[in-house]
Write a structure and sequence with these properties.
This protein is an alpha/beta fold and 377 residues long. It folds into three domains: 11-77, no CATH class; 93-287, Rossmann fold (3-Layer(aba) Sandwich), CATH 3.40.50.450; 320-375, Arc Repressor Mutant, subunit A. It has 14 helices and twelve strands. The strands form two sheets. A nine-stranded mixed sheet has the order 1-2-6-5-4-3-7-8-9, with helices on both faces. Helix 5 (127-142) packs across helix 11. The protein is globular. The two termini are 36 Å apart.
């Protein structure tokens, strides 16, 4: 079996991909693991259905009819469903470990090939902060950059407004057809017409708290670098900055008054090594540094062992309940490396992978970049 992830060759295969990524508790990393192991989305769907039948549990597979209906709604809305590996997939986003297998794209798809800089910051931004964001976006747009942000209030809104005439991309936390925040309806409609919107969520999905970190990884993953303007220490912008660092992107910040809580995040990033920037020329200079993104994810850093047994007669070699309990006790809300689990739990890679897959499909754990897993609170 090849480890290379090949994009769907036809409509039926793209529907298979949509079924698999919409199946219960299958996130991007698990999607690629299943695809790698079984060779195709169709084979993975069959394996998940068989496993559910054998265990007497509800089938986690997303129904084919619902996938067909979703695809039809996407087309009727005027959007495209772009798969990882296809020509319209954003090139830098394809390099992150948990890149969406399928991305909905609405607007000027040519922008997806442009050099991209993200500008993010506080929702309750000051007037000066919003003016700076808008000015930076305008100037960077004149230099040929696409401006990425998350269409939130404050800095995001100002950045999109500043780049409307040169090119902006908004990563949406909900469905492409859901206007959020409500007051940004004119801006979201303008981006539909003049820029580009992307989302991995089904049409009609309303943004929820857990969706925003996923949206943030798209903003940073699209971009060569991320600029933070006004952000508290515990904010979505700081999550975006951390994700940018994990993804190997440049992290930049505008300094601010130590008396303003909205400046603490940016000032902290600068102390930690982020580049201090004050104008578009500073950002340009930073982005001229040599940049080698990680190789596009064509295979997964996993042991070459089954995710779960294909032979129904073959059982876990230790008591299954004891093994599950042993693994769960080693897990917590902080992510741990699977290699560390393997050393500590005294199970074989096959047994551990089988248990972890059961936990994920039951919604008990989540996979994170770096082959790490964490319990879901």
């Amino acid at each position: 079996m090849s480890n290379v992830i090949i994009p769907p060759a036809n409509f039926d295969e793209k529907l298979d991909w949509l079924q698999l990524i919409r199946s219960k508790n299958v996130g991007p990393i698990t999607f690629y693991k299943l695809l790698q192991h079984f060779g195709s989305a169709k084979a993975a769907l069959n394996a998940l259905s068989q496993k559910a039948r054998k265990s007497g549990k509800a089938n986690p597979v997303f129904p084919r009819k619902k996938a067909e209906e979703e695809f039809a709604r996407i087309e009727a809305f005027g959007a495209q469903l772009v798969a990882l590996g296809e020509k319209n997939y954003p090139p830098l986003l394809a390099h992150i470990e948990d890149a969406p297998p399928l991305l909905q794209v609405l607007g000027n798809e040519k922008f997806l090939k442009k050099r991209t800089v993200a500008i993010v910051g506080a929702r309750n931004a000051s007037s000066n902060g919003q003016s700076l964001a808008k000015e930076l976006a305008q100037d960077l747009g004149q230099y040929g950059f696409l401006i990425a942000s998350g269409l939130a209030r404050g800095i995001d809104t100002a950045a999109h407004q500043g780049a409307l005439n040169t090119g902006t991309i908004a990563a949406i936390a909900g469905g492409l057809d859901v206007i959020y925040p409500p007051e940004n309806r004119p801006l979201q409609e303008a981006i539909m017409a003049k820029g580009v919107l992307i989302s991995e969520m089904p049409l009609g999905s309303k943004p929820q708290a857990r969706h925003f970190p996923r949206r943030n990884r798209l903003v940073s993953g699209l971009s060569r670098g991320v600029v933070v303007i006004e952000a508290s220490l515990k904010s979505g912008s700081m999550i975006t900055a951390r994700l940018a660092q994990e993804q190997g992107r440049e992290t930049m910040a505008l300094p601010g008054s130590p008396q303003d809580p909205r400046s603490k995040g940016g000032n902290f990033l600068i102390k930690q090594g982020a580049t201090l920037v004050e104008c578009a020329e500073d950002i340009m200079e930073t982005l001229e540094r040599p940049f080698d993104p990680p190789p596009q994810k064509k295979h997964l850093n996993l042991p070459d062992t089954p995710l779960f047994e294909r032979d129904p007669k073959k059982k876990i070699t230790v008591n299954a309940d004891d093994a599950r309990l042993s693994v769960k006790e080693l897990l917590g809300p902080s992510a741990v490396y699977v290699d560390d689990l393997l050393r500590q739990c005294q199970l074989s890679p096959t047994e551990l992978n089988s248990i972890l897959l059961e936990f994920e499909l039951a919604g008990q754990i989540e996979w994170q970049p770096g082959n790490r897993v964490a319990l879901i609170s």
